[in-house]
TrEMBL record:
Flavoprotein keyword on record: no
Keywords assigned: Membrane, Transmembrane, Transmembrane helix, Transport
Similarity comment: family membership: Belongs to the major facilitator superfamily. Sugar transporter (TC 2.A.1.1) family.
Record's compositionally biased regions (Low complexity): 7-19
Protein name: General substrate transporter
Family matches, as NCBIfam families: SP
GO function term, MF aspect, one: carbohydrate:proton symporter activity
PROSITE patterns recorded: MFS, SUGAR_TRANSPORT_2
InterPro entries: MFS_dom (IPR020846), MFS_sugar_transport-like (IPR005828), MFS_Sugar_Transporters (IPR050360), MFS_trans_sf (IPR036259), Sugar/inositol_transpt (IPR003663), Sugar_transporter_CS (IPR005829)
Length: 534
């Protein structure tokens, strides 16, 4: 398997011969320490997925509804949540994540990736203590907000660590494991909800909430044994610490390590020559940085534009209100299929893994399944065949989303920013992504809750066109950077290549310090097109 991955990676490379020869020296097993560290960091989104898996089920549990909801004899459970409470319980977590990810740039100015993960773990534990001990809706809102702050830090800084530490050819594989943990967390949450929903009383939701403690404790202990991101250390001028960290992460001789350290330093110097300090407005001041910021933000936001958040956050409630079989079992099946889709994706991402193709195809599939779901329910909402069709279309949707959209959206958001502005740009991209998630989870109850519009599955009428518009944007504007190092991506952006020029471009191995001029004084052709004129 490892040999096949190596052959695939080298066969599609567009690097210069010396770089290609260097890459072919090492197999996947030679990078085991780096990949193990990245896998550990990729566990962070387990919390994010677990929360969505749990909270979707909690809103359909009688034990939870008796404390935070109201009696509703007309509904299958006999209880319901007001639209306002449903909005806030689900959306405050994503609002908190939006706030903490928005602060990623300033946070990274002072503390590293590992320290931020420790802080997130502490916040996670505190938030869960609040949620488990309160019976007041205000206390629950506070706990949800604190948990969101923790999850925003987890999702942003774990991604930054993986993007900065993983070898170029395995970057996609590591980010796909990031998505595996998200879906695994959601599956665990829905399975536990399925069993505890039958318990009468508060324990039905307190037992699932207890699971939130596991990963923060495990992460807090485990990251003691891995080094800080070498690129972050280099950006702070801590060269010897960066060299030591890179030596831990990489196989090879001291000269190999020195060569990569030199490449990183040259890229940092090239960016510093243009701007001597880092500020929020730097993301938009320079045309190249502005383009990279727009691409990173839009690339990550297509995840939210697919409409996945209402399926993830309200899946169990959605199935229950629509009267489609056993709501908890349907959610478990859906999450299990989602994991299968991601595992299949993980097997092909290093072989193929082209961002543009997967994102475009996935968005088209998700749009079609959303539209068909709305049409089927609109035509005959009460038929048993309609329920089966909706579950089947939900399976198609989750295969398209987990297998083609989620992983590649996160990859695009993380690998396109410049090194100098990576924390700021990726933080902004993540924040916008969380804002889109918050907007979806906040407004969805208006559409699906019987107390409001009561659309149920007809909500798909809104998300189908959103998916297709996003697919068009990806096709025309998103560059293909599979198997490229972060320094090569810097070079191609500085050369102002059009989006379709990235895939086959042969990098010359020197950072470009100004438009059309390399660090050695050679001239490069300037390429302009409409997407640069922002």
């Amino acid at each position: 398997m490892a040999e096949a991955m190596e052959k695939s990676a080298s066969s599609t490379s567009t690097k210069s011969p010396p770089e290609l020869a260097q890459d072919q020296k090492w197999r996947i097993k030679d990078h085991w320490k780096c990949l193990a560290a990245c896998t550990l960091m990729s566990m962070c989104p387990f919390q994010y997925g677990l929360d969505f898996g749990l909270i979707g089920g909690l809103q359909a549990m009688v034990g939870f509804l008796k404390i935070f909801g109201y009696e509703a004899p007309d509904l299958p459970t006999g209880w319901n949540l007001t639209t306002e409470r449903q909005q806030l319980i689900s959306s405050l977590m994503t609002l908190g994540a939006f706030v903490s990810s928005s602060c990623a740039g300033p946070i990274a100015t002072f503390i590293g990736r590992k320290t931020t993960i420790w802080l997130a773990s502490l916040l996670c534990v505190v938030s869960n203590i609040v949620m488990m001990t309160t019976t007041n809706i205000g206390g629950l809102y506070a706990g949800r907000t604190l948990l969101g702050l923790a999850n925003g830090m987890y999702m942003t800084f774990a991604q930054l660590y993986i993007q900065e530490c993983s070898p170029a050819r395995y970057r996609g594989l590591m980010i796909s494991s990031f998505q595996v943990w998200t879906s695994f967390g959601a599956l665990v949450g829905t399975i536990v909800d399925n069993f505890t929903a039958k318990i009468d009383g508060p324990n039905s939701y307190l037992i699932p909430l207890g699971l939130i403690y596991i990963v923060p404790v495990l992460l807090s202990l485990s990251i003691l044994f891995i080094p800080e991101s070498p690129r972050w250390l280099m950006s702070k001028g801590r060269v010897e610490q960066a060299r030591k960290a890179l030596r831990w992460h990489r196989p090879g001789t001291d000269s190999d390590i020195d060569a990569e350290i030199t490449d990183i330093q040259l890229a940092i110097d090239a960016e510093s020559d243009r701007e001597h300090s880092v500020a929020i407005m730097d993301m938009f001041r320079d045309p190249v940085d502005r383009r990279r910021t727009v691409l990173a933000v839009c690339g990550l936001t297509v995840q939210g534009a697919s409409g996945a958040m209402y399926i993830i956050a309200y899946g169990t409630y959605f199935f229950q209100i629509a009267g489609i079989g056993d709501a908890f079992e349907n959610s478990c099946i859906l999450n299990a299929i989602g994991i299968v889709a991601i595992l299949i994706n993980s097997a092909v991402i290093t072989h193929y893994g082209r961002r543009r193709v997967f994102l475009t195809t996935g968005l088209i599939i998700c749009g079609i399944s959303q539209l068909l779901t709305a049409v089927v329910y609109h035509v005959n909402p009460s038929a048993q065949s309609t329920g089966k069709a909706i579950v089947g279309l939900a399976v198609v949707y989750i295969m398209g989303y987990n297998g083609m959209i989620a992983t590649y959206a996160w990859i695009s958001g993380g690998e396109l920013p410049s090194q100098r502005l990576r924390s700021y740009t990726f933080g902004l991209a993540t924040a916008v992504g969380f804002f889109a998630a918050w907007l979806t989870t906040f407004t969805a109850p208006y559409f699906i809750n019987p107390e409001s519009l009561g659309w149920g599955p007809k909500y798909g009428y809104i998300w189908a066109p959103s998916c297709w518009i996003s697919a068009l944007w990806v096709y025309f504007f998103l560059p293909e950077v599979k198997d490229r190092t972060l320094e090569e991506i810097d070079e191609m952006f500085e050369a102002r290549l059009p989006a379709r020029g990235f895939r086959k471009h042969v990098c010359i191995g020197h950072p470009i310090t100004s438009v059309g001029t390399t660090a050695t004084g050679e001239k490069n052709a300037e390429v302009f097109h409409d997407e640069l004129k922002v």
